[in-house]
Protein: Flagellar basal body rod protein FlgB
Amino acid sequence: MADSLYGLSERALVLCEERANLLSSNIVNSATPHYKARDIDFHKLLQDASNQADALGVSDPKHIKTNGTDGSLPVLYRVPMQSNLDGNTVDEDIERKNFIQNALNYQVNLTFVKNKTDQIMKAIKGE
Structure:
């Protein structure tokens, strides 16, 4: 039922949370030798969840595992624009930009879920 009410916004919130964890880890480790910047392909994972939910008719997109049997997300390693002598692939500017963009995506989806919930509550109260 949640899928029919909120669409993929609930799944998008979960993906944004996972992505925020990866991006913040990248920023924190920007000076760590040999650290490899990591990310997920947010749009592909959301599209996959949409396609799988449509194809299988599941009641909630979170019921579908995104990778393997444990439900873990496929993590990608960022290819650096410029190589670093210590082997670190984090570009702080790119990571900060991606973090801000991800935070905005999270806020948009959270607002959508809140508005939808408010509509449901008004309908229940007969307003």
Residues 2-125 form one domain. The first strand starts at residue 38 and ends at 39. Residues 6 and 113 are 6 Å apart (CA to CA).
